[in-house]
Design a protein that fits this description.
The protein has 78 residues and is of the alpha+beta class. Helix content is 19%, strand content 10%. The chain has a domain at 26-61. It is built from 1 helix and 2 strands; from the N terminus they run βαβ. Strands 1-2 form a two-stranded parallel sheet. Helix 1 links the parallel strand 1 and strand 2.
């Protein structure tokens, strides 16, 4: 069983090298639901640990959630 942190979130089991470029957002996915308080705590810890300022969006997505980008809405590229 995965370790659970003091805020009730599952422990980190995988770490990957990340390269954030200007304009990028950081997405963190969790295997279950995350409360607003837990999400805010994670975002604050991530910002402090990675030295991210408020200009870098940090998104918390629970299980089953996904994020995608649609470029130039209204235009169809072929």
């Amino acid at each position: 069983m995965a370790a659970v942190s003091e805020d009730g979130l599952p422990g980190i089991t995988t770490v990957e090298r990340l390269t954030l470029r200007p304009g990028d957002a950081l997405v963190i996915r969790f295997p279950g639901q995350v409360s607003q308080q837990q999400a805010e705590h994670v975002i604050a810890r991530v910002r402090a640990t990675l030295g991210l300022d408020e200009s870098v969006p940090v998104l918390i997505l629970p299980a089953g959630a996904s994020a995608e980008v649609i470029e130039r809405p209204g235009e169809i590229a072929r």
